[in-house]
Every structure is written in structure tokens, then in C-alpha cells.
């Protein structure tokens, strides 16, 4: 069995890559497709997939090739590309290295215009709140355009015809070509340093490529940052550039920009004449009214009889003085009464007076209490004596004083009936002044009639 040779994956991939690289049909390929899985690396390289209904193709566009793209590729965008097909050895996949790309269906410039317009609009550069007012009577007008074009002649002619007292300063700038945008930016910076009242930035008509400098982002941002109000005048009425959206005022043509920048001298003269007429008419009206007022004042009583008016005022002054004197005295009297009332009120409620009144009240109440207690004591004493007399009158001793006595048996029981004794019992008889001990000799019961 013969020995078989195996290739490494790297060797096979390099072999296939060489096949791609030497194929002249793969060196300059035109492909159209839809962008998918778009990703832009931080170094500027673009990676995405080109696809159609049946196939996919990996694509790379390095920063050196995409730096000047006028539009930004997006997911789902259909594009036309030109590039080289080769194999990326790291993954073994073939892919296209794109050198040129443009949108499929619409022009790249139009797409770039729409993308920049959307971007600046979202940042607020078109907002009306940032628009500066155009001065109504500018003294210094700056014109930024080509010094040899027809636009500058139209602008100068129109301004001199309408407002010859203004000063026109032309700041030359390139308005077409690759260096036009930086030239316009530099001209705007220079014009701002010259303290202009208003700037006209523009050029005559042309194709979108010829007008493209006014769609550049650097021009738009410089117009937005300008301290001097700017009127844009680019192309014809149907040409709308990014500069028109950012400018403080947009004019459809350079001639129209000049008309918007300055008033017409004839209109000013007409207004001046109208104001002069109205001023004369108003002055005459005011003067007539003042004369009538003066005549009325001269005919007034004060001017005709000033002495009488003085006398009346003297009398009025006397009455006022009397009234004032009366009111002063009345006020003083009222204040004095009020003071006395308050003084009396304070005296009555003074703590010392309150203490004295309290002491007097205590002494008075003490006397009344002592008197009441003495009366109660006397009454109680009388009642006591009365009770004592009643008790004394009922005392057995009092009864014995009248000759009565009380007999007790040997048990000290009071003998009330003869049945309580018998002959021979010892007994004790209590008389007024002592006791008599005796013996029962006989017992006789008394018969009582029924």
C-alpha cells in the first residue's frame, strides 16, 4: 500500500486563496445586494454581509476606502459595490474587499444630504429659537461668494439700487469643488471678525454636485455658530441646501437675498414722507388743543379776579386754622381723658391695691367667722344646759330627795314585787344619803281592787 500525503488546513486554505488571487475575474467585481449585520469597528473599518434572496457574501470595507463616503451605510440598505474577492485565511471564508460603494436606487449625494439633514435637525440646528433677527437697516453687509461669479454682481447691483448708503464688503470664497467647503468656512470666520451687520452666503445655480459645498457639515456648523446673522442664497428657488436650513434666513436667489438684506430707499422715503405728514397733522392738532386750553385758562376766574381769589383763600385759611386749633384742643382733651381713664384702670388693678383689698376682705371675713362661731357656741351651750337640766330632773337621786328609796336583794337586783322576797332574806335599801342593810321579818301583799 502506497503512502498517502495529507494536507494541513492552512496549506489547503492558502492554495484556495492563491486560486482566488490569480483569477482576473475576481480582481474587479461589481456586486449589488442588501446590507446585513452591519458593524463599524472603532478603527473605522466596516464589516457586513451582502445578501439577496438566495445567497450571502461577507464584505469588508477598510477605513482608507470608506473615509470619503458621502453617506453612512445602514442595516437593510441596498448598495452597489466594487471590490476584490479573496479568501480570509483565519476563517477560510471568501469575502469581498470593497473599494467603492454607493446606494442602489438613489444617488449617494442625495442620501448623504438626507442623512445630514436628519442629523442636524435632531441636534436642533434648524430650530427657529436659534434664528437671529436680520437688522432692518444694516450699515455693513458682507457677501461671501465667488468674486468673479454672476451672483456677486447681482447682489451688489441690487443693494446699491435699493439701499446705496450701506457698505458692501465682499469676502471671496470658493463655492464649487473639493476645497469650497473649507473656503466658505474660513470666509465666514473672517467676516465675523469684521463686525458686519449681516452676511449673504451663496452662489448662482448649478447641479447638486456644483452646489454640494453648501451641503457639507462643516459649512452648516459654521453658519450655525456665526455671531452675525446670515442669509443663505444658493442656486435657484428649487434648490434647497443644508445651508438654507441652518441659515437665519433663506433667500431663493442671490438677488432675493440682497432684497431681503436691505430695505428699498424709495419705500423708506415714502414711509418718511408719510410719517412727516402724520407728524405735522398731529402737531397741528396738539397745538390747537393746547391753544384752546390756554384760552380757557386765561378766561378762568383765577386769572380774571386773582385778588378776590387771594382774599377767599385768606378766609379759607383762617377757617382752616380755627378748625385746626379746635381739633388740636379736642384731640388733647380726648387724649387726657383717655389717659386718666387708663390711669384709674391701672390703679384699680395695681397689685398693691389688690393685696390691700384682699387683706381687708380677710379681716372682715375673719370677724364674721368669729361672730358666727361665738353664736354657734352660745347656742350649743344653751342646748347643753337644757339637756343637762332635763337629765337632772329625771335622775333617780332627785326622786329619792322627795323621800323615795330603792330596795336590792342579795344579788343587787331591784326588788319591785313582794314575790321576790321571803322571810329571812337579807336586803339593802338605798336612801338619799346612803344604804340600809336589813332582814325581812314578814311579807304582806296588798290586795288591789279590780
Automatic annotation (TrEMBL):
The keyword Ribosomal protein does not apply. GO terms for molecular function: exodeoxyribonuclease VII activity; nucleic acid binding. It comes from Sutcliffiella cohnii. It is found in: Cytoplasm. This is Exodeoxyribonuclease 7 large subunit. Residues 125-438 form the Exonuclease VII large subunit C-terminal domain. Pfam families: Exonuc_VII_L, tRNA_anti_2. Keywords: Cytoplasm, Exonuclease, Hydrolase, Nuclease. One of its GO terms (biological process) is DNA catabolic process. It catalyses: Exonucleolytic cleavage in either 5'- to 3'- or 3'- to 5'-direction to yield nucleoside 5'-phosphates. Heterooligomer composed of large and small subunits. The gene is xseA. Belongs to the XseA family.
Amino acid at each position: 500500500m502506497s503512502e498517502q500525503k495529507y494536507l494541513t488546513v492552512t496549506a489547503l486554505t492558502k492554495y484556495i486563496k492563491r486560486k482566488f488571487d490569480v483569477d482576473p475575474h475576481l480582481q474587479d467585481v461589481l456586486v449589488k445586494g442588501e446590507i446585513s449585520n452591519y458593524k463599524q469597528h472603532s478603527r473605522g473599518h466596516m464589516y457586513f454581509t451582502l445578501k439577496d434572496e438566495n445567497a450571502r457574501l461577507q464584505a469588508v470595507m477598510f477605513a482608507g476606502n470608506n473615509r470619503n463616503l458621502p453617506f453612512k451605510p445602514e442595516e437593510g440598505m441596498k448598495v452597489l459595490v466594487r471590490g476584490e474577492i479573496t479568501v480570509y485565511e483565519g476563517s477560510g471564508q471568501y469575502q469581498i474587499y470593497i473599494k467603492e460603494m454607493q446606494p442602489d436606487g438613489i444617488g449617494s449625494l442625495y442620501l448623504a444630504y438626507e442623512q445630514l439633514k436628519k442629523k442636524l435637525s435632531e441636534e436642533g440646528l434648524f430650530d427657529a429659537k436659534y434664528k437671529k433677527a436680520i437688522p432692518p437697516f444694516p450699515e455693513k453687509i458682507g457677501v461671501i461668494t465667488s468674486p468673479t461669479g454672476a451672483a456677486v454682481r447681482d447682489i451688489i447691483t441690487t443693494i446699491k439700487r435699493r439701499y446705496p448708503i450701506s457698505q458692501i464688503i465682499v469676502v471671496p470664497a470658493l463655492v464649487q469643488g473639493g476645497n469650497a467647503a473649507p473656503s466658505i468656512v474660513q470666509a465666514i470666520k473672517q467676516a465675523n471678525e469684521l463686525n458686519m451687520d449681516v452676511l449673504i452666503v451663496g452662489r448662482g445655480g448649478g447641479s447638486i454636485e456644483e452646489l454640494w459645498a453648501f451641503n457639507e457639515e462643516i459649512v452648516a456648523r459654521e453658519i450655525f455658530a456665526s455671531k452675525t446673522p446670515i442669509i443663505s442664497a444658493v442656486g435657484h428657488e428649487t434648490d434647497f441646501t443644508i445651508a438654507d436650513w441652518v441659515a437665519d434666513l433663506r433667500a431663493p436667489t442671490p438677488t432675493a437675498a440682497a432684497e431681503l438684506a436691505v430695505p428699498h430707499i424709495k419705500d423708506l422715503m415714502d414711509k418718511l414722507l408719510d410719517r412727516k405728514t402724520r407728524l405735522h397733522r398731529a402737531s397741528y392738532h396738539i397745538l390747537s388743543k393746547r391753544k384752546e386750553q390756554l384760552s380757557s385758562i386765561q378766561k378762568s376766574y383765577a386769572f380774571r379776579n386773582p385778588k378776590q381769589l387771594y382774599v377767599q383763600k385768606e378766609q379759607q385759611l383762617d377757617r382752616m386754622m380755627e378748625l385746626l386749633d379746635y381739633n388740636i384742643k379736642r384731640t388733647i382733651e380726648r387724649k387726657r381723658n383717655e389717659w386718666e381713664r387708663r390711669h384709674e384702670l391701672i390703679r384699680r388693678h395695681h397689685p398693691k391695691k389688690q393685696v390691700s383689698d384682699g387683706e381687708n376682705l380677710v379681716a372682715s371675713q375673719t370677724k364674721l367667722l368669729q361672730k358666727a362661731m361665738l353664736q354657734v357656741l352660745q347656742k350649743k351651750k344653751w342646748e347643753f344646759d337644757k339637756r343637762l337640766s332635763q337629765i337632772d330632773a329625771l335622775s333617780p337621786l332627785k326622786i329619792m330627795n322627795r323621800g323615795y328609796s330603792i330596795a336590792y336583794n342579795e344579788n343587787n337586783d331591784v326588788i319591785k314585787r313582794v314575790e321576790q322576797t321571803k322571810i329571812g332574806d337579807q336586803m339593802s335599801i338605798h336612801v338619799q344619803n346612803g344604804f340600809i342593810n336589813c332582814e325581812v321579818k314578814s311579807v304582806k301583799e296588798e290586795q288591789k281592787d279590780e
